[in-house]
Amino acid sequence: MEQFKKIILTEKEMPGQWYNIAADMPNKPMPPLHPGTKKPVCEEDLHAIFPPEIARQELSTERYIDIPDEVTNLYHTFRPSPLFRAVNLEKALGTKSKIYYKYEGGNYSGSHKANTAIAQAYYNKKDGVRRITTETGAGQWGSAMSFACNHFGLELLVFMVKVSYNQKPGRKLLMNTYNADVIPSPSTLTAAGRKILEADPDSPGSLGIAISEAIEIAVQDPYTKYSLGSVLNHVSLHQTIIGEEALIQMEKAGDYPDVVIGCFGGGSNFSGITFPFIREVIKKNRKTRFLAIEPSSCPKLTKGIFTYDFGDEAGMTPLLPMFTLGHSFIPDKIHAGGLRYHGAGVLVSQLLKDGFIEAKSKMQRECMAGATLFARTEGILPAPESSYAIAGALDEARLADIEGVSKTILFNLTGHGHFDISAYEKYFANNLPDHELSAAEVEKALAKINPIDCR
Amino acid sequence: MEQFKKIILTEKEMPGQWYNIAADMPNKPMPPLHPGTKKPVCEEDLHAIFPPEIARQELSTERYIDIPDEVTNLYHTFRPSPLFRAVNLEKALGTKSKIYYKYEGGNYSGSHKANTAIAQAYYNKKDGVRRITTETGAGQWGSAMSFACNHFGLELLVFMVKVSYNQKPGRKLLMNTYNADVIPSPSTLTAAGRKILEADPDSPGSLGIAISEAIEIAVQDPYTKYSLGSVLNHVSLHQTIIGEEALIQMEKAGDYPDVVIGCFGGGSNFSGITFPFIREVIKKNRKTRFLAIEPSSCPKLTKGIFTYDFGDEAGMTPLLPMFTLGHSFIPDKIHAGGLRYHGAGVLVSQLLKDGFIEAKSKMQRECMAGATLFARTEGILPAPESSYAIAGALDEARLADIEGVSKTILFNLTGHGHFDISAYEKYFANNLPDHELSAAEVEKALAKINPIDCR
After folding, report:
1. pTM given for the model
2. Residue B452 in this model has a pLDDT that exceeds 90
3. Which of A9, A70, A126, A173 is most worth mutating to test chain B (most B CB atoms within 10 A of its CB)?
């Protein structure tokens, strides 16, 4: 009686390189533009906020980039991460399909964010940086960065989106335990924050605002750099370790995914699990679908437009070619704080535009129902963000059953929900609102964008 | 530059049997006595609250007991668990000693309690039981049992010690997510609970009271059985998987512990990590010390007496030969709720009496300081219970340095503290009281015991 199936790899089997999909994309991503000159940025332009190696990786078209030994060593405390076959979930559904999930919550930070936090902290330390500023939504990224910075001897200042700061005090305390300073955003520490608070003293904040605040502090001091947990190419690069491992593990399981699913905020975990499988489509003509699941209240992929836009609220980042709802869009206070972002990463946006990936939006109550079923059958309590990927996987399994076929479904379980238990409390109390952004709301948001021609 | 060292085992390397130390103890444990007749209980006596296989294991003197396939299958979702060399903690201490820890928090329940929960739920299901009642302190045991019962199709009713119910709402919600009913104890559901509430409506509760309530419900219905998360022999038995794995892992590390350390509540995790190493002392004359760390506010091992006493407040369990502060002792409201128990398990008590193990008590603030240092260096956020083992390990390392020697120290990191973050909050705010039970308090507690001659 086989009830569970876990596919593990040894440390020696862990891939030694990250995969850069830019090398293989038929249409290369368009370059970021300088926010002032509107001309393509070069590596040097990025040195104002990033150390040289991060700037290099951001614009690189090299196919593979070596993972440094110091990063590998910390990865080995929790990597390779396990791949599970969700046998009990399948039974509960009564599906003919096979559901696999890659679990990225089994590390100190409880989410996939550690994969890039460790790399970014390392490169900053190597470059002589002393302090890092960053933003965080629900707190996974902030927690990941806190321990990584403390490990490499860097100070960290985190701007935490205010709604999450209030919803999730545990995450703030975890960051404090790891020695970081945490400020609710919008704050009065920065001009960007003060401007928002003047217009709306009760602003719940957004990732876009928190990014503006973090960058504003970083550019004032040559020994302080900024660090971003999603969206950018180097972040997606570091996350590809997820998909590279999953490829080997699916092979060990004697299976191959018909569809690969990830939840979608800025795109980092989605890129991480899908890019190596997309490479197999491009280079080896494999047939796999890729499905990004975003919140109905923040539907940049399904209702946004593809245009150059800022990554932050105040317009301090380079202009990025992305699917966006506009950098001033402030999403609903959903519990999946990590998905409350107006835009999609550059690589993912181009791939969506070119038809390599699909996107779908879902409501939070349905996602929490899926997360509860998952917890009861598979044991792991999913983060609210991860619940979107689960809901996407359940949809695929049910659709396959209706069609009378069996699919092999792989999704990324980005993290655990131990610090998000209040979301479950509200779900059980039937106290979790649903909101699908209406056509009028979409129109209003998009009208604020000042589009630049994107071919 | 090696910063971390993780020693993992494959599923095939996981031992297939639990180890029963009763087979090898020079002085066998004295038998439990029937609470009514005061005569030694036999297996049949235990059938009122336990299924036959559990009753058999409780009184067994077989050296090894096979782990059933169904249990192994669920174990494999998180076992073998990793053993880490705490290189960064060693560096922070500047110690010459080597510190290893076995991490038992990487499963759905976040603690070692899953090891016995899965076995107990399985044996109950196999015997046709429909519902289980149990107690829980901080909630680790209750969480472990909730998922295990749901997995095997059993209902679960959990009496959660009221102080923890209020301190740790997250644990209650986790149990609900896993489909269990959770009642704060003392409750009005039982005569035992009502009696306590009449005497003290504000009673914080204790594990002893919660056990009485759970047993009272169980004995009323032939399809309901009771399940205990610590103290008893079969619980210690199931936990020996920890030490059996650690033995193999220490060998792989090319090392062997001079001292093995565990925190101490009722003794289950301590038994689990130490018993296989104590076997090596008894059978192979290995030289290892064994150190139990208990809270200064609940010092049964260091200040209690060895006598027959009840396992619960109301006197419904068999009388057990144990180190105890008396079954009516209500410990301070420390955050390590899992250590708030008046007595020590039978096997551990006999081994302490016979000089195989040592015990030491510590204050919670010192333990939380150790836990914070551990989190900052090793990444994992320890449960307040586990912080006692950490503090014990730090003491051993510092003492060794004073003596100018290098020791190999192994401790059991029983679980993560994700649901106990309020303990860290209070520690950081300098709002965590310390209390060492005074001689007068000890005398008062012990005076209530009606001792039975224990040789």
Report:
1. 0.95
2. no
3. A173
